[in-house]
Automatic annotation (TrEMBL):
Family matches, as Gene3D superfamilies: 2.10.70.80
Location of the Sortilin C-terminal domain: 238-299
Pfam family, one: Sortilin_C
Protein name in UniProt: Vacuolar protein sorting/targeting protein 10
Keyword Repeat: yes
Keyword Repeat in annotation: yes
One GO term describing the cellular component: membrane
InterPro entries: Sortilin_C (IPR031777), Sortilin_N (IPR031778), VPS10-sortilin (IPR050310)
Residue ranges of every copy of the Sortilin N-terminal domain listed in the record: 55-188
Native organism: Thelohanellus kitauei
Keywords of the record: Repeat
Organism taxonomic ancestry: Eukaryota, Metazoa, Cnidaria, Myxozoa, Myxosporea
Amino acid sequence: MFYFHDILYILLFKNEYNLCLYTLNEHDHMVEIICNLSLKYQYDRKSPIMINPHIPGVIYANLQINDNNTITVISFDEGKHFLPIELEGNYSGCFDTSCCVEFYLELMIESKEDHFPEKWMAIFQGVYHCNGSSRYHNFMTFNGGKTWRILDRIIQKFFVLNHGGLVFAIEQSSNIIWYSYDEGNNWYDDIRGDFKDVFPLESHNNLGISALNVNRAYNIHSFNKYVFSSVISILCLMTDRTCHNDDYEPWYIPRFYENCFRGEEAFYWKIKRSAMCFDNRTVLIPTFEPCQCIRDGFQWYSN
């Protein structure tokens, strides 16, 4: 059993080989959400289910589709409908019965920032299965899970600053620190060294990282600071200025029926991809608006 967003979730076996996710309705009766959950990771820390800690109603599930393969699906409406993971770019048209994505899900998260660093961001390690082959990747979304990007490099750790406006990726075993200003559209790799550890730095008008660099030949340790407040990126120059109102745009939480869920839609003010400024907000508060009532969007309605 686990508890998120005032909802109790229960994992139970329907029979010996069929693991299901349940919840309780307002009468404390057990309600089935989804079954045929993968049994692949039942003996380690991974899980067939993961709940988005920022956004109520968003559920990730790993389903067992045959003896060998697992597919990850996502629900934006508290489990009433589940959709396969949709990839962007060259992978966007590849999904049929022979191609799928499998995320490594964790039930207990020590830090929300590991997988959900911002309201609209999520990062997972996983496998892309297609035509009999399986390849390990990192997967990243900047729109709440609606679409995902594959990172072909093997990334050991991510650092997300400026509410997602600046992302660092530490490439495993290559001593390269990649960074992106535009939600992963472009990555830059001009930070190189023999890094022992990397720390994020984030304060007013100061975005960057510090890295402990090791020169093994001379047994020298150095502490380097990389600040990116004045670096050319894409066609813009990031200046030492605080974001203004026109640097933001509304980001609506995606739902199965467009943005409407239980009679309302919610959005956050998100920094524009093209805005090169410092976002000094410490707390992000959603705005709620009524939307057209859809009967199937309510928890109490059952087909």
